[in-house]
Specification:
Layout lengths: L1 H33 L2 H4 L4 H11 L12 H17 L10 E18 L2 E2 L6 E2 L8 E10 L6 H4 L9 E5 L11 H13 L4 E6 L12 E3 L3 H7 L3 E5 H8 L15 E27 L4 E11 L4 E3 L2 E3 L2 H23 L6 E8 L2 H4 L1 H8 L8 E7 L17 E5 L8 H13 L2 E3 L17 H5 L5 E5 L18 H19 L18
Helix pairs in contact: 3-9, 3-14, 4-9, 9-14, 12-14
């Protein structure tokens, strides 16, 4: 018995020795595979530049939603996803269509106090932002910029009335960007206004395009859910307000209140259904493959105005090619036997410049359950420098927006990852609920957030070329862009491999009209 125990002990020691040696060797291999640094090298400034040169090139014609340029860009992105080795989403599709409607105006007329107004001289409109209908108006409310409820609408009762608003914001009086307009309209809509009139300085305008306007709603839904938006000249606004000071007038000093008027607006239009697509690729996970990390960017831009191309290199070609490079890094890891635990969906959406259409459609018709989507990391403009950021290191920062909301772990994860890997200045100033730019609501992450999915929006800020034809590839700082991409990469890696999904332990912040 003693001899047998000695033999057993010797055998057991030998077995333990072998296992110990194997233990010493195996972790080195495993840890080498698990180290995200091994695959970060796929995210290069050269690769980003090569892809962006194509995506933001003249052949893509500015990538406006539901145009030939957008369709060309979608094919390019799909080809890249296939080349990288991403799988199509369930349904065997990389391109996820959503409806777009082209509006054509058959006839439109406006009269003020019995006097007919001249299109393009006195008034204008976007065919996609005005439903068909006939409106007889007897009272109009002037509410300043129409953005800050406590000031602009103080004491006013806009329900059932048209509101007259000054263009822009107090900080940027001539800001006519799509998101600023949507803010104004939604505030008025939430107050149950009947219509919105925006006073603009750039009259006379080019002739109204009676065709080519787009919306993401059918004509019946547009009429039911949207309120009409009309643009008028300052001289016509003076007639409405009937001020004695008909000369040099500052509308911001006019008393906010109700003004009598006899206005008649008639619009006759027809609608044609067309479409656009989001482009998505799936990288399956391992033991948590039924949970998802989304990495998003919008690939559409403003298209062409006459023959002038709006290239959109930073907005948001930079984000779109970043998700391609990230996909390449994660796919390489998976091919080396190091797939992430959770599945990752890389999705380039369109319709952002029209009002977040693509992401709104996806989150309203999700293919992957939103309650199993642990995070959306949204990348929108990461290739330039914000000239207004006069503090800190302008070549080593990133704005992160939304990581203070919905999940208490997001901001600590961002800080931890950044401190370990990228060491940039994390700037969260746009998380301030009083931020007049309202960037939290102005990119595709918001449609995930409003459905309860924790989000981070990576952003470099705006610049002089924002929404201009001069937003071109040669102005991109690819060295800075690469570093920002690495922050997203390491963050995604960490979240995709966590034991648990991110907790949703913070309520969705309701800021302003949202």
């Amino acid at each position: 018995m003693k001899i047998e125990l000695q033999k057993f002990a010797a055998h057991k020691f030998k077995s333990m020795k072998i296992k110990f040696i194997f233990f010493l060797l195996l972790p080195a291999c495993v840890l080498a595979q698990r180290n995200p640094d091994n695959f970060a090298k796929k995210i290069t400034a050269k690769g980003l530049k090569e892809k962006l040169t194509i995506l933001a090139g003249a052949n893509m014609q500015g990538r406006e939603t539901a145009t030939e340029g957008q369709r060309s860009a979608a094919l390019f992105i799909e080809a890249q996803f296939k080349k990288i080795g991403l799988q199509p989403l369930p349904g065997n599709q990389y391109q996820l269509p959503f409806p777009v409607y082209k509006e054509t105006i058959e006839n439109a007329s406006l009269s003020i106090n019995g006097k007919s107004c001249n299109a393009s001289i006195d008034f204008s409109f976007n065919p996609s932002r005005i439903p068909a209908g006939s409106w007889s108006v007897e009272k109009i409310i002037y509410a300043g910029y129409g953005l800050i409820d406590s000031i602009d609408y103080d004491g006013l009762q806009p329900k059932g009335k048209w509101v007259l608003l000054t263009e822009g914001t107090a900080q940027t009086p001539t800001d006519n960007t799509s998101r600023t307009l949507i803010d104004k309209v939604n505030i008025a809509k939430n107050k149950q206004a009947a219509g919105v009139i925006i006073i603009q300085k750039d009259f006379p305008k080019p002739p109204i395009s009676m065709s080519g306007g787009m919306t993401n709603q059918a004509s019946d839904a547009l009429s039911a859910n949207n309120i009409p938006i009309l643009y008028i000249s300052e001289s016509l606004a003076k007639q409405i307000i009937q001020t004695a000071n008909a000369g040099d007038i500052n509308f911001t000093n006019i008393v906010h209140g109700v003004y009598p008027v006899k206005m008649q607006l008639d619009v006759l239009k027809r609608t044609e259904k067309i479409s656009s697509t989001n482009v998505a690729g799936l990288l399956p996970g391992t033991d948590k493959k039924d949970e998802y990390v989304f990495i998003t960017a919008h690939y559409d831009h403003l298209g062409m105005r006459d023959s002038i191309i709006y290239y959109g290199a930073d907005d948001d070609g930079s984000g779109t090619v970043t998700i391609m490079q990230l996909a390449e890094a994660f796919s390489t890891a998976a091919k080396k036997g190091n797939a992430t635990r959770r599945s990752i969906v890389f999705m380039a959406v369109s319709g952002e410049e029209k009002g977040l259409w693509g992401s709104e459609y996806y989150t309203s018709h999700p293919i992957m359950p939103l309650d199993k989507t642990t995070v959306d990391l949204n990348i929108d403009m990461v290739g330039r420098i914000d000239p207004t950021r006069t503090y800190g290191d302008s070549t080593n920062y990133i704005y992160t927006i939304g990581d203070d909301k919905l999940s208490s772990l997001l901001a600590p994860i961002t800080d931890s990852i950044n401190n370990k890997y990228t060491k940039m200045e994390i700037d969260r100033k746009f998380n301030d609920p009083k931020d007049p730019n309202r960037f939290y609501y102005r990119s595709d992450h918001y449609n995930f957030a409003k459905n309860g999915v924790p989000v981070i929006f990576y952003f470099n800020g705006t610049h002089a070329d924002y929404h201009r034809p001069t937003d071109t590839v040669e102005k991109i700082r690819f060295d800075i862009m690469q570093k920002r991409a690495l922050l997203v990469y390491y963050t995604a890696w960490h979240i995709a491999n966590m034991n648990d999904m991110l907790p949703r332990d913070k309520p969705l912040s309701q800021v302003g009209w949202r």
